[in-house]
Amino acid sequence: MTRYVDKADEAVVCTGLVYAFGETNAVDGLDLTVAEGEVFGLLGPNGAGKTTAIRCMTTLLPVPAGLVRVFGHDAAKDAMAVRRLLGYVPQQLSADAGLTGRENVALFARVFDVPRRERAERVGQALWAVDLTDAADRLAGTYSGGMVRRLELAQALVSAPRLLILDEPTIGLDPIARTSVWEHINAVRAATGMTVLVTTHYMDEADQYCDRVGLMHRGRIRALGTPVQLRQGLGERRGAKATDPLPTLEDVFRDIAGSGLDDQSGGFRDVRSTRRTAHRVG
Amino acid sequence: MSEAPAAPRTASAERDGIGLLVRPPEPRAGWRVLPARVVAMCAVELQKLRHDRTELYTRAVQPALWLLIFGQTFTRIKAIPTDGIPYVDYLAPGIIAQSAMFIAIFYGIQIIWERDAGILNKLLVTPTPRSALITGKAFAAGVKSLIQAVVVLVIAALLGVALTWNPLKLLGVAAIVILGSSFFSCLSMTIAGIVLSRDRLMGIGQAITMPLFFGSNALYPLSVMPGWLQAISKVNPLSYQVDALRGLLLGTPDHLALDFAVLIVAAALGITAASSLMGRLAR
């Protein structure tokens, strides 16, 4: 196993990543660095290439051109080493409704090689970290949307990942459940120091919870920085006075992505899966 | 930006009662990964069955009817040469194989459902090689079929079928059921990897189950089949499964070594084919 470490504090490095579906380059020369320990938000309109980029980082998709490294491991050549470092929560509500919360988490403890002697305790800790101890022995099919999201978080946390990747973690949730999911992500991050890479459509969440954000449009990062930096930058470009309120992150988003809608926006399957998730969480 | 150095991080995790969540588990050594994943997938299948046994009961209806109506009737009319054993006895191993195959052949629907629900993607982002995941799923289908086979065995025993109770032979029966189901579930997962839709897989499953069943020795011996059907039956793994089950359960003449060899090779080919299509399901 070869490690190509440029800097010790880089969790994810993408260089010139290209991924095409047929004629369309979903990711078109993506350059991105996520520092260890930060909460990084990948923002962008539907079809911007966020999910495709994340799928390359998680080794779900191959890396046809460019380079993706996770803590120095090449995602294309050393997929197993990358997977051992990852916790992944996909966009869909992916808990198995036919298993209890505890069994859902135990499955991931097993497939990450947690030895039997510490499996029950580790599963218990993961459930405790997301406040599901009392509901642990109920079928996941009886959980609310917010509880399912927290259960998925427990599934991802049970292997002590160094990088937690969440694809639209709060989609379709009510504001209280959204806050709760973020509070749990933050609490676990504070306790474990893990790096978090999240995609979201909600600009207020990105502003509030992300250390840095990257705005993606048509397969590339178009703006990168802390939310405040991006908002100040737009204010300066617009010639705002110091006393004027800062533009919001949503203004920055509109400035870069325009209306955000074009013919390439979100494939049928993405939209269907998003709607299904929204429907399942009520 | 808040970055916590390693030592205080461990301390704070310990204080919060989640000390284990900062210690990554030790990876298993190479050869131990496959059996561990097989056990993990089988455990999930058993847990699901424990929570909801409806499928087990509803799936018992069809084999019961085959044995009760078809078996009893054909025992009376003595239309099929069975070397002197009652037809219902001759039929019982065929129905065990059939009900196991019916479960396995629709197993691909589950993998498409898992794909749509994001469960499959999550499993593919774990340190599990795709072939190990497919092998795990294949054996999980085998375990599910085995439980179904036990139900059919009990029904057959209640109908007075003279089955062996030799534990070694029953172990052989279990191995054959698991191997056969592994093959058919891999066939199903391979089709799933090609068609990528539940509806299409359902249609193809419906279209192939009956030809596989009628094109085997489950209902009648090879000797009464026309030549073209004999040829089909000889390349149909279900025939080898039935032959072995009949030999083990009833003590009829069999070709156990050949049967095991064919089923092992078929399962291995199935696992290879389904694994190679996992990339399509991951997209």
List the defining traits of the structure above.
heterodimer; A: 282 residues; alpha/beta; Rossmann fold; 6-stranded mixed sheet; 4-stranded antiparallel sheet; 10 helices; 10 strands; 39% helix; globular; disordered N terminus; B: 283 residues; mainly alpha; 13 helices; 0% strand; elongated
What report would you give on this structure?
The complex is a heterodimer of chains A (282) and B (283). Chain A is built from ten helices and ten strands. Chain A has a single domain (10-280), classed as Rossmann fold, CATH 3.40.50. In chain A, strands 6-7-8-3-9-10 form a six-stranded mixed sheet, with helices on both faces. Chain A has 282 residues and is an alpha/beta fold. In chain A, strand 1 (10-21) and strand 2 (24-35) form a beta hairpin. Helices cover 39% and strands 23% of the residues of chain A. The model of chain A is unreliable at 1-5 (pLDDT under 50). Chain B is mostly helical and 283 residues long. Chain B has one domain (27-282). Chain B is built from 13 helices and no strands.
